[in-house]
Design a protein that fits this description.
Layout lengths: L12 H9 L2 E7 L6 E7 L5 E8 L11 H11 L9 E5 L4 E5 L12 H20 L16 H16 L6 H12 L9 E3 L8 E4 L2 E5 L6 E3 L1 H14 L9 H11 L5 H25 L6 H23 L17 H13 L6 H39 L6 H14 L5 H18 L1 H4 L12
């Protein structure tokens, strides 16, 4: 029955799914997410239906961490521990694909009622305590190195993302942030634990006031448990789901249940680390602009995360940032504007299906961004060149040259210039958010919750 569905899955995938499920595919839908996944039903001869969630890695070989294969290994190891994770129902080495048990529930905790949010977060923190209490040597995850020092915990993931970037993008914020991370490794390391590596709201599902499944283990690794708290901060930034008092009650509850302290200086460090990991990864993704990827979301995440990185750095350093004045513009008539209007008024209303509609809506936003860059970009570039000149002592001929010169200068400066440079980088980040406003508005008004 697989041939009845339109899809672009690799050859042999649907045959493997049908064989693994013991029947015929009766549902095959692309899931709306940043990483490729599919919702799949297989109906068996007896009429029963196997419900799966398909994850695949089109280019990976599964040889290391941060892969779909590693994710499958982690979930398989955790199923027997009491962790609420989906079972891996089938794995294909040839296709680098996993069929996950599809769990009940939803992931939008930010849209739940406050009482349900509180109950789910209580269950989640109990799961996090359990995860961090597991003996690393007993899990059989031999493909993952176990760090021994605070520096190894803090820098292992940064080493990985720098290799991932591979010199594809040069940017003074990335250079500055990576130097800061290497210069400010936390002093505390109470224990080494298995970490989800991307934990917090939207990466667990909930049902009837409880966590039904913790999902997305692709970034799982061994490290300092405080890193997972930095992750909670970053994910809660996008999916706010705590009361007005912020994350502090959750942190205190973890201390009560685990008997281990939450070191807020380390949490602030790892909050920076997690955002830097995100911006470096997003820089590579947006440099490639693969048509298969959710590009509007990736550009939105990139520039929101760049601003958030600056704010997280400022909080960790104890300095104040200055939001710049942003020019108000009245967009002129343009060909890009005509395309946007045609898509919105004539094409979008005629499109059926959640995934095609999602793709077209986001493509329209990207055209809006191109129009905005053409009309607003030159004025903002002139401001950038003036502010870079105030730091380097020279006004470059182009913005690309100016950013490159500042990047080289940062590499030679010591910590005495950290505050001044960060204030500029933050102003630049706010201006970039403004320039990319059509996609940034997919996630409006994102800000940090209090952690103390």
């Amino acid at each position: 029955m697989a041939e009845e569905f339109k899809h672009d899955l690799p050859d042999g995938m649907t045959d493997w799914i049908a064989e693994a499920g013991g029947g015929g595919i009766t549902r095959l839908e692309r899931h709306i997410a940043r990483r490729e996944a599919w919702v799949v039903d297989v109906t068996r001869p007896d009429g029963s239906v196997a419900e799966y969630f398909l994850r695949l890695d089109r280019e990976g070989d599964g040889s290391g961490t941060h892969s779909v294969k590693s994710e499958a290994k982690v979930q398989t190891a955790l199923v027997e521990t009491g962790m609420k994770v989906p079972a891996i129902c089938a794995w294909s080495e040839d296709l680098q694909a996993a069929l996950h048990e599809r769990m009940p529930g939803r992931a939008d905790l930010d849209n739940a009622e406050p009482d349900e949010q509180a109950a789910v977060l209580e269950d989640f923190i109990q799961q996090l305590v359990l995860l961090h209490s597991l003996d690393p040597d007993s899990l059989g995850l031999d493909h993952m190195p176990i760090p021994a020092t605070s520096a190894e915990c803090a820098l292992g993931e940064i080493d990985f993302v720098e290799q991932f970037l591979g010199g594809m993008v040069t940017d003074p914020l990335y250079t500055y942030s990576l130097q800061w991370i290497r210069n400010h490794v936390p002093e505390h390391l109470d224990r080494v634990s298995l970490l989800q590596g991307d934990t917090g709201p939207a990466n667990f599902m909930f049902h009837e006031g409880q966590v039904s499944a913790i999902v997305d283990w692709e970034w799982a690794h061994f490290g300092d448990p405080m890193e997972d708290f930095g992750n909670i901060c970053t994910r809660e930034f996008y999916c706010p789901s705590t009361p007005d008092e912020g994350l502090a009650p959750m942190f205190r509850r973890y201390e009560e249940l685990s008997g281990f302290p939450v070191h807020l200086d380390s949490v602030r460090y790892y909050r920076v680390q997690q955002f830097v990991r995100s911006i470096v990864s997003l820089a590579r993704i947006t440099a490639i602009n693969d048509p298969q990827m959710p590009n509007a979301m990736n550009w939105a995440y990139r520039y929101i995360c760049e601003r958030a990185t600056c704010e997280a750095l400022a909080d960790a350093m104890g300095i104040e940032l200055e939001r710049p004045e942003l020019p108000e513009i009245e967009m002129a008539s343009s060909l890009e504007g005509v395309v946007v209007q045609n898509l919105r008024d004539e094409v979008l209303p005629a499109v059926d299906g959640d995934y095609p509609l999602h793709r077209l809506e986001h493509a329209t936003l990207l055209v809006e961004c191109l129009d905005r860059q053409k009309q607003l970009g030159p004025d903002l570039a002139s401001i950038e060149l003036d502010e870079i000149a105030a730091l380097t002592g020279r006004r470059a001929d182009s913005l690309d040259d100016g950013l490159m010169e500042l990047d080289h200068a940062i590499q030679g400066w010591g910590t005495e210039n950290e505050s001044e440079v960060l204030r500029y980088l933050a102003r630049r980040a706010w201006r970039l958010e403004y320039l990319w406003k059509p996609v940034v508005d997919l996630f409006p008004d994102r800000k940090f919750s209090r952690i103390d």
